[in-house]
Amino acid sequence: MNALEIDGVWKYFGDFPALRDIGFKVTAGSVVALLGRNGAGKTTLLRILAGLAKPSKGSVRIYGSEVREEPTRRRIGVLGHGISLYDELTATENLVLFGRLYGIDDPAKRAHQWLERTGLDRVRDGLVREFSRGMRQRLAVARTFIHDPELLLFDEPFTSLDDRAIAVLQSLVIEAQQRGCTIVMSTHQLREAIELSTHVALIRKGQLAYSGERRQEMLDDPGWLYRTFEEEGPS
Amino acid sequence: MSLFLRQSLTIAGKDLRAEWRTKEALNASLAFSMVILVLFSFALDPNPEMMQEFSGGLLWLVFLFAGALVLNRSFAREMQNDCLDALLASPVPPAALFIGKALANYALLMTLELVCLAEFGILFNVRWLANVGPLMIVMAVGTWALTVVGTLFSALTVNLRLREVMLPVLVYPMMVPPMMAAMILTTDLLAGTALGPGNMLWIRVLVGFDLVFTLLGVSFVDTVLVG
């Protein structure tokens, strides 16, 4: 079964085509590394997949349904550039809020479990604005996973994470993979991304330059993909 | 309770809790409204005849100006840490998001207006308690008009750099019909005229405006936020 079907997606910002005829399919349970240089269109594509923007042309279907349909959004977990947490609320209040919005039974209990899991139990009643950067990031990871999503969309998930947050996120990604979740992650960290992935998609100037299974050449030499399908290496 | 209402109340509760912790919109709008009322009291001679003429207009202008500060914060609050993305990615219907935001704005605007009304009574020697019931009805219906238009345009301007300027520029012209109705009704009530067949037209204008713009907000908020 396809978790993701992207068909002829174009996205214009004014006259500028940020995405040009992007199309590929992702089978359920795959881990896709979405690669490309800065400005290639990775974030734009991920925003469309998350239902945060609409394509100018083309369509995206997630588990066979439209992205903006409510049951579809219930199946998606998004971790973007921002932490998407409210500074004026406590850690528990933030997680309970998102638990309620996702219709989880007993959101307070689930919030408590995730706070323990991410090592934030002792600051559960602390306001997020008083948290260190690493603590905020771990809470953002908990928010992403709190409703047990089947499709995870990560935009530069490891950028600016501290060591502890990276460890938490890596373990959760591996666990999600084993559970059969589909994961799409955009990243500049080639080696880590390729090691985790089962499939690779490379976007170059808004166009799909490569899409397919991870190859041995990529594992042996992560720069191979860029050298083969891009004129220059990653910036 | 329906899921839609539960989600709306969750959003409203979150906004009110965040505002209660920071008080940034409420403090700014209360201070601003008090300054305007004090300045008006110096600028205008508050004799009883004049007050009968302009009390409703003055009061609603203060509500409108100070209310813009509350409405500006509504969706701008979601830009911090990209919270709006998490709300839009969640299974909450955009209409529930809109209604939740509107309910929180409504509570804040009504609080602001009640404080302004008390101050207005003291500064301009207006006995508004005589007709308090009908006055509350007019305030409730007029404030919902300001709330729905303001919340919708707050969503529309959330990504603009000059949103603090753009919101009043867009909202004030739209508010001409309900403000006219609310001003005339408030002036009548403060002058001691009861609500009746003579001013029922303005009540209908207010209620009609509320219904039309609530429907527009609920229908178009997804297009406004996602495109």
What is the compact description of this entry?
Chain A has 235 residues and is α/β, with parallel strands linked by helices.
Strand tally of chain A is 10
The count of helical stretches of chain B stands at: 9
Rg of chain B to the nearest angstrom? 18 Å
- Classify the secondary structure makeup of chain B into a structural class: mainly alpha
Element pattern of chain A in H and E: EEEHEEHEHHHEHEHEEHH
What this model shows, in words?
The complex is a heterodimer of chains A (235) and B (227). Chain A contains nine helices and ten strands. By secondary structure, chain A is of the alpha/beta class. In chain A, the strands form two sheets. Chain A has a six-stranded mixed beta sheet with strand order 6-7-8-3-9-10, sandwiched between helices. Chain B is mostly helical and 227 residues long. Chain B has one domain. Helices cover 82% and strands 0% of the residues of chain B. Chain B is built from nine helices and no strands. Chain B has helices at residues 3-22, 24-43, 48-76, 83-89, 94-124, 132-156, 163-174, 176-190, 200-226. In chain B, α3 (48-76) packs parallel to α6 (132-156) and α6 packs antiparallel against α8 (176-190). Chain B starts with a helix and ends with a helix.
Please specify the SSE layout and strand pairing.
The complex is a heterodimer of chains A (235) and B (227).
Chain A: E1 2-13, E2 16-27, E3 31-36, H1 42-49, E4 57-62, E5 65-66, H2 70-74, E6 76-79, H3 91-101, H4 107-117, H5 133-145, E7 151-155, H6 163-179, E8 182-186, H7 190-196, E9 199-204, E10 207-213, H8 216-220, H9 224-229
Parallel strand pairs in A: 3-8, 3-9, 6-7, 7-8
Antiparallel strand pairs in A: 1-2, 1-4, 4-5, 9-10
Helix pairs in contact in A: 3-4, 4-5, 5-6
Chain B: H1 3-22, H2 24-43, H3 48-76, H4 83-89, H5 94-124, H6 132-156, H7 163-174, H8 176-190, H9 200-226
